[in-house]
Amino acid sequence: MWDERYAEIEFAYGTQPNDFLAENASQIPTGPVVCLGDGQGRNGVFLATQGHTVLAVDQSAVGLARARALAASRGVSIQTEVADLADFDLGEGRWMGIVSIFCHLPSALRKRVHAAAVTALQPGGVFVLEAYSPEQIAKGTGGPQSPDMLATLAELQAELTGLVWQHGVMLERAVHEGRYHNGLSAVVQLIGRKAA
User: What is the domain range of residue 65?
Assistant: First the structure.
């Protein structure tokens, strides 16, 4: 499904970064950043333009090929890795930033990835997330239709124990990101820092 979506002529979620990430990117210390489920690379490429060394991880080789082309068009480069997050090793103390923008996973896998993310951050490193909350299903403006792939703020904070919260909200806001995220949306936003 993802290869088909990312092979469409138009970028599925646009070429501009997620606006929550763009507004808060300055909170991520300079250094290596991994973008989880980065698809066609709009967020990873943006972070590369901000001076970060970026690894974009996604299960779609088609999406990541588009990501590399987008980076080249912006005069930057990113590393890409085709991987299923069930098998991807985030490492230990490796990243100054871990970015998860609308990267929806089955709850059991999400909990494993989030626990690994806390371990994988360097001291002072920052985790940034925006995702749809369970209320999104009724809105029909994007995201998965499975409640198991959506989480509340409290659930996410529990999964990311070990971070100091800089920001954490559930809210409704307009999201306009290509044809697949478009309209009033119910989202959860998180920024957490690993203690230095």
Answer: 2-194
